[in-house]
Amino acid sequence: WQGSIVDRDDKQPLFEKIQEGLADDLPLMVVGHLASPAQVEKLIAAGVQFAAMGRELIREPKWVQKVEADDEQAIRYTFSLRDLDELKITPPLLNFLRTAFKKGFPISTDEKQIRI
Questions:
Q1: What InterPro entries does the database record attribute to this sequence (predicted)?
Q2: pTM of the predicted structure, to 2 decimals
Q3: Residue 51 forms beta bridges with which residues?
């Protein structure tokens, strides 16, 4: 639901601007900061044909299956460093995630939750 990064006063979501300019038979895919089923459902209700996920599928590879099973409570929205083996996140990938996604990739520790 991001608005213009050029005109901060323009709050119309970018996908709506793009959608207005597309031919009726051309589908639109939206990606970025989608984590919960409610966020995806809101996009679909707004007329978006496809929602793509990236970071969320790294920390919760079974996201689709859990949503289909109506088991949103089981979705992992953050992960612990103890989950790295299960998620097949190698040290180089973890380093990349920490550098590329400094904000918006939650990792929890026993003491606190940190965002990288």
A1: Aldolase_TIM
A2: 0.77
A3: 30
